[in-house]
Design goal:
heterodimer, A: alpha+beta, Alpha-Beta Plaits, two-stranded antiparallel sheet, globular, B: alpha+beta, Aldehyde Ferredoxin Oxidoreductase,  A, domain 1, Aldehyde Ferredoxin Oxidoreductase Protein, subunit A, domain 3, six-stranded mixed sheet
Chain lengths: 155, 643
């Protein structure tokens, strides 16, 4: 998951897609992705789980409730093992807590097709291979340097 | 358990310093939908003809709908309703931002504020905790400062605040309410009503959820609508340029660019305010209201000149033209700066521009002199005077005190210049000229619930409908109605658009998704609503509810003895042929279209009151009874006018 805060319009469509997809209700507080807003400046920042390589949530969990799962390899919380001790919440701000189920929740990449990225209207959240994303950015810089305005196919 | 709706109304009495929660009956939800429908009904019931808009008995109502705070595209809007201090009649205004969804997450479909606080206060709604707090330190502050101070005092950035600026505190007749700093419920003077209650702000934090009856189906339907909006040309253009995209076609192709108080509909250099120019030179960020898949919102940054470094939310088209070309300005940096000024002070940019434009035209024609203005010289486009006037209006200083009444009443007080007040029912026009924009729009301007305003129906079928092959023909039976300046089927088009808009405002769903872009159709709205609430709605029923809401709002005016005589376009649109531009020579054919519109609606041609059987058919029996006495009285008024 890759984010470009400069593109984020702060609309929070991602929060709605996420909470509805995972919990069947619409609620920002149940969303795995959260938008940090600076209303007076018109800036917004999408906070998504980085699925990082040295996950603090995983090391913090004393109950082996967090594990790599599925084809996407996403770090996922197994609700039936979670005791609600909140150690992972302390370890990482990207983890949420379900007030009714009394268990922690986190981004599971929606089984390989993250809904936040799918519905982001401005392309601020992208789900893509890291290399592809970085190459696209390099290509943008190259476009500028080479003054490429049109795609070669359109010339 | 209710789905979609929360089923709760929060009522706060500022005189008694109490709050209470009222249950909303499911049959009421079915009848009025939510948002605008709930608000209009409550206003009709609780704010009668004897209640002064600025008295403690008056109500200030905030409403959200069953789709607010959900995954439905562009569903985060809020309707604010009150009797308007500007027109004296029905008033409402609709705002985007994130405040409405937050109210919903806190557990409420509606918030009603009544009474008057004994000192400046603000309201703090933290889920089910409601607190009236002192606002002495915040009173007098401009909007961004007040917003920041409240967040600091409450110790959280994760709250959303609706508030007024100094203009609302001074009860400027067209003061607005803003949320998230730059999202305004601008029209009809809702901010003045809030100021009259000594209420500076309403801060909300909601941590709850909106329950969905059939989550998977709802998800699928919303996803389809979002995918359509993503592919939609109109939505893409709105994302790219915002409503600024209107400047070029409005001026060069369609000739309704409001220049110097509607004296012209065309200016050869209007391209200086083009959407491309704004995007390339001024756009800081694109901004979306809650759950919006269009994101037409702008943040602008001024890079050079006397205002270099300023950053502000907006402007959108009505604002940029209201405090721009309407008062003789074409410089983008000045327009952006003036937008920042009116927002921070809490003024409606349309009415503010309308009042200044009125004064400038009176000056141009020698009806106002330095004796009236306290030494101010009111030349068109004089930026120094304009910025000074805006400040004077917001603080009701000197000549600004007169303009703070709105152009219509200002002309009345002054005793001259009424013909240059471009307003309907005392409410200043937005910057839209039916001599170019279109005749269905013109019907809405003359008959609308707010007075002069483009949001009665926003009948974009005649503006952008042609981009959707077969759409206009499907709805109205002929593609002839796609032509803006053709009278064919325009009353029917306006009726359809008004009913649909009332539905959108009640659900709530942004008008741009179903009337400008037409990617969301009434059938889609019915599917979204049905799967969200678990109640089955068909498109026809929704449009019928929309019609019910429109008729109730009409009856609100009728009860005040306002009808056909007041359904009058500004004389300029009817009597002065467009002097130049693409529609040179055009006038709005009011005498033909208004009677036809009445006939389509089933309204009495003599009084303009809805016929009794129409009201009864819509389930408005009590309203029909209420209007009986008013009807007779108004008939006498009409006849004495004629005789």
């Amino acid at each position: 998951m890759l984010v470009d805060p400069s593109l984020c319009t702060g609309c929070r469509t991602c929060e709605m897609a996420c909470s509805l997809y995972h919990e069947g209700v619409c609620s920002p507080t149940l969303s795995r992705v959260r938008i940090i807003k600076y209303e007076a400046l018109g800036r917004s920042y999408p906070a998504v789980c980085a699925q990082c390589s040295k996950p603090q949530c995983l090391s913090a969990c004393p109950h082996e409730a967090i594990e790599y799962s599925g084809r996407s390899g996403a770090l996922t919380i197994r609700e039936e093992r979670c005791t609600g001790c909140r150690s992972c919440l302390i370890a990482c701000p990207q983890i949420g807590f379900h007030p009714e189920k009394k268990v922690a929740f986190k981004c599971d990449l929606c089984g390989g097709e993250p809904q936040c990225a799918r519905f982001c209207p401005s392309g601020a959240i992208i789900f893509s291979a890291v290399d592809e994303f970085q190459m696209a950015r390099l290509r943008m810089a190259a476009d500028k340097a080479c003054q490429i305005i049109q795609h070669p196919a359109q010339v | 358990m209710t789905f979609g709706w929360t089923g709760k109304r929060l009522r706060v009495d500022l005189s008694r310093e109490t709050s209470s929660i009222e249950e909303i009956d499911p049959s009421y939800m079915r009848k009025w939908l939510g948002g605008r429908g709930f608000n209009s009904e409550l206003l009709y019931q609780e704010v009668g003809p004897d209640v002064d808009p600025l008295s403690p008995d008056s109500r200030l109502i905030f409403g959200v709908g069953p789709l607010t705070g959900t995954f439905a595209p562009s569903s985060g809007r809020t309707t604010v309703t009150a009797r308007s201090p500007l027109s004296g009649g029905f008033g409402d205004s609709n705002m985007g931002g994130h405040w409405g969804p937050e109210l919903k997450f806190a557990g409420y479909d509606q918030l009603v504020v009544q009474g008057k606080a004994s000192r400046p206060v603000y309201l703090w709604i933290d889920d089910d905790q409601v607190e009236i707090r002192e606002a002495a330190a915040i009173w007098g502050r401009k909007v961004p400062q007040a917003d920041a101070m409240i967040k600091e005092e409450l110790g959280s950035e994760e709250i959303h605040i609706a508030l007024i600026g100094p203009a609302g505190e001074r009860i400027v007749s067209y003061a607005c309410i803003l949320n998230d700093v730059y999202r305004a419920a601008a029209r009809c003077g809702m901010g003045a009503v809030m100021g009259s209650k000594n209420l500076k702000a309403i801060a909300v934090r909601g941590t709850g959820a909106v329950s969905i009856a059939r989550p998977e189906e709802f998800y699928r339907i919303c996803a389809q609508a979002r995918d359509r909006l993503r592919e939609d040309l109109m939505a893409q253009m709105l994302f790219d340029q915002g409503t600024w995209l209107l400047t070029m076609p409005a001026n060069y192709e369609q000739g309704w660019f409001c220049w110097k108080n509607f004296q012209k509909g065309h200016h050869p250099q209007a391209r200086r305010l083009s959407g491309e120019k704004h995007r390339d030179n001024f756009l800081a960020h694109r901004e979306g209201c809650f759950a919006c898949s269009i994101s037409c919102g702008r943040f602008s940054r001024i890079k050079e000149g006397q205002y270099a470094g300023e950053i502000t939310g907006g402007p959108e088209y009505e604002t940029l033209t209201g405090i721009g070309p309407r008062i003789g300005l074409l410089e983008m940096d000045k327009v952006v700066h003036n937008n920042k000024l009116v927002n921070e002070l809490g003024l409606d940019s349309c009415s503010c521009g309308g009042a200044i434009a009125w004064a400038m035209e009176c000056w141009q024609r020698g009806l106002l002199t330095e004796k009236d203005t306290g030494g101010l010289v009111l030349d068109w486009g004089d930026q120094e005077t304009i910025t000074r006037l805006i400040e004077m209006i917001a603080r009701r200083e000197g000549f600004g005190d007169l303009l703070a009444e709105g152009s219509s009443r200002a002309a009345e007080i002054l005793g001259r210049g009424a013909e240059y007040s471009i307003s309907v029912k005392g409410h200043d026009m937005s910057q839209d000229d039916p001599r170019g924009l279109g005749f269905a729009f013109g019907i809405g301007f003359a008959t609308g619930r707010r007075g002069g305003d483009h949001l009665q129906g926003l009948p974009c079928l005649e503006l952008t409908g042609g981009f959707y092959p077969g759409l206009v023909e499907k709805i109205l039976g002929t593609s002839k109605a796609e032509e803006r300046l053709s009278p064919v089927k325009k009353p029917e088009m306006e009726r359809y658009s008004e009913d649909l808009k009332a539905v959108g405002d009640s659900l709530t769903q942004c008008t741009f998704t179903h009337s400008w872009s037409f990617a969301v159709q009434p059938e889609d709205m019915a599917l979204m609503l049905s799967s969200a609430t678990g109640l089955e709605f068909a498109a026809e029923e929704l449009l019928r509810i929309g019609s019910r809401i429109v008729h109730l709002e009409r009856a609100y005016w009728n009860r005040l003895l306002v009808g056909r005589l007041e359904d009058k376009s500004p004389r300029r649109f009817v009597e002065e042929p467009m002097p130049d531009g693409p529609n040179q020579g055009t006038v709005f054919p009011e005498a033909e279209l208004i009677p036809r519109y009445y006939a389509v609606r089933g309204w009495d041609p003599e009084t303009g009151f809805p016929n009794e059987e129409v009201l009864i058919d819509l389930g408005l029996e009590k309203v029909a009874r209420d209007l009986e006495a008013c009807r007779a009285k108004y008939q006498d008024m009409v006849r004495s006018e004629r005789g």
